[in-house]
Amino acid sequence: MCGICGFTQAELADVRTLKEMCDVMAHRGPDGEGQFIRDGVALGHRRLALVDLPGGTQPFIRQKNGTFAIVFNGEIYNHADLRAQLVRLGWTFRTRSDTETLLVAYMQWGQDCLHRLRGMFAFAIWDERRATLFCARDPFGIKPLYYTRQGTRFIFASEIKAILRHPAYRRQLNEEALEQYLCFQFSALPETFFKDIFKLPPAHWLRVDRQGAMEMQRYWRPEFVPDAHLGGEEAAARVDAAVRASVRLHGAADVPVGSLLSGGVDSSYLTSCLREDDAKARTFTVGFAECEAERNEIAQAGSAAVDLQVANAARIVSQEEYWGSMGRVLWHMDEPTGDPAAMALFFADELAATQVKAVLSGEGADELFGGYRIYQAALAAKRLRTVPRALLRRMADAAARRGMRGANFLRRAAQGPAGWYYTNAHQVAFCPRERDALLARPSGNALPQQLAAPLYEHTAHLPHTMQMQYVDLHLWLVEDILQKTDRMSMAHSLEARVPYLDTEVFQVARMLPEHLRVTHQQTKVTLRRAAASALPVQTAGRAKLGFPVPLRRWLATDARQAQLRVLFDSPTARHFFDTAALRQLLDEHRGGQDRTRRIWMVCAFLVWHRIYFD
User: Fold this and answer.
1) Number of alpha carbons in the 13 Å side-chain half-sphere of residue 114
2) Which has the closest alpha carbon to 83: 59, 62, 111, 113?
3) Which domains does the chain have, with CATH numbers?
4) Cα distance between residue 202 and residue 109, in whole Å
5) Three-class secondary structure of residue 412 per DSSP
């Protein structure tokens, strides 16, 4: 896990700029740094050392009919197997690092090496032979990579703040990102909140030459191919074998590896598998004193730790600590986040970093195996699929006029998921109508449903539940879940590893038929069944909590309301929003209507804007 950056059209005098870009990401790699400037290309690196501590220094350089130089962020978990293949092909190595293996794999197979990699990665390779810079990002988007083109100059980095350090870039807010953020909880656009700074999408490579000409291509796609003949027992056995194998790879390092533990099935299953290879495995949990007992992760994790016979370090976070760290969290995030769980993760990673340099975390289990309860809504709507949609719409309108329950259910059944589901946050964020009423100058740009439409078109042959999973794999997982996983761990120089997001695990998950994913009674059916061999029944069947934060209660207090009213009447707030609508949000929340996430989203944007623009 590291921080990488670089640019084309570089001169030796640009070493100071390159150093500044590296230094602003020092939290990503406190163990070392390096710079490379040659042939008009600059590459920079900050290192967090976990594998081959003395030999993994970057930028890493090899010669064969020209110079090849790499900067790499992540882990290649099958690098030992790849190295053995390359040795048989005549290659020799001078280190044990996965960085050297990755570079030699590119030298041997070119862009096709991506199909052989098992891991999380973002990297850039200067290929002197072709006079091109080759960049790539892992299949699920675990590791980030941002880029901009300023004229014919190409600039890239692991974090946006490093690009902001380059004098060729002039920061400008992308207001369309704000519009999508209010609906999605993140910007679902290829472009970030910073004008002309883009994200390299997951499972894509990019090649750029000295003149700035750029080529981009997708090299993998997470396709669901359900096997109707697959039985529950066989499916659970396959999942169990794949998860255990993945945990063994993800648990390998030259430094201690721990696990975040919530007490739910995802993290408990990983911890159980990790403990089989490391009897001294340590786990980490945070919670909040104001949480109800049934939503207190510390109690659940403590119970799970006893059952699993692992050490558990726990910390209670106060309201003052939570709000006091908001500015620091948003600086690390680079872009505003509508997910208050990012703050909780910040404290969990801070706790883990006091004892280990890497942790396992359960991200991806819900998207791969069907873990969100909203997926069950698609099953319920199946019962109405024979009713004409026009009739369903009339029934929904009639129910809404009479104040009857079920109007939203009927409306969703009439639309199908493509008409209403575009992110896991859609129920708590703003719908397009509400967004436009909130904004001071709504633009009428693309609706969130339009941005999600290509994903539904690609999966039109699948059941609705799998269509929703596919949407979440491309939007919610990448732009919310993995974004905060990377940023909050790196804020504390900690590597977060996500064993569920492994291509071999996905090869099993993609085969599960709908009834082995979600039923009317249960989510993650097969994963829970697989985990039952390693966990107590109550843990394997426990409902998802989703990092509970008592934000709803906090936002209703007199002190917090007073602070927010000042923020919501600031010049920046008046520039972007209808402040009367903002005050109404606060009034409604204080009156008992839950406006928690909407208030947080506006608050996070305003604090972020103050950090990066005011």
Assistant:
1) 25
2) 113
3) 2-175+184-218 (3.60.20.10), 232-370+480-540 (3.40.50.620), 550-614 (no CATH)
4) 20
5) helix
Encode pLDDT of 79-94 as tens digits.
Answer: 999 999 999 999 999 9
Angle between helices 558-567 and 579-590 (to 10 degrees): 170
Length of the chain: 614
What CA–CA distance (Å, rounded) separates 355 from 361? Answer: 16
User: Do residues 196 and 146 lie in contact, with contact meaning Cβ atoms separated by under 8 Å?
Assistant: no
Q: Which residues are marked as active site?
A: 2
Q: What is the pLDDT of residues 131-160, one digit of tens each?
A: 999 999 999 999 999 999 999 999 999 999
Sheet with 257-260: strands ordered across: 311-317, 282-288, 257-260, 358-360, 495-497
Q: Are 512 and 526 within 8 A, CB to CB?
A: yes
Q: Which residues pair with 612 in a beta bridge?
A: none
Alpha helices in 293-431 (DSSP H): 297-308, 319-324, 326-333, 341-352, 365-369, 375-381, 389-401, 407-415, 417-420
Burial annotation 141-175 (CB, 10 A radius, 16+ → b, else e): bbbbbbbbbbeebbbbbbbbbbbbbbeebeeeebe
**Number of Cβ within a 10 Å radius of residue 89:** 10
Tokens of 362: 């359960």
8 A C-beta contact, residue 324 and residue 560: no
Rounded-to-integer distance, Cα 535 and Cα 540, Å: 6
Query: What would the pLDDT profile of 518-564 be if each residue is shown by its tens digit?
Result: 999 999 999 999 999 888 777 766 666 666 789 999 999 999 999 99
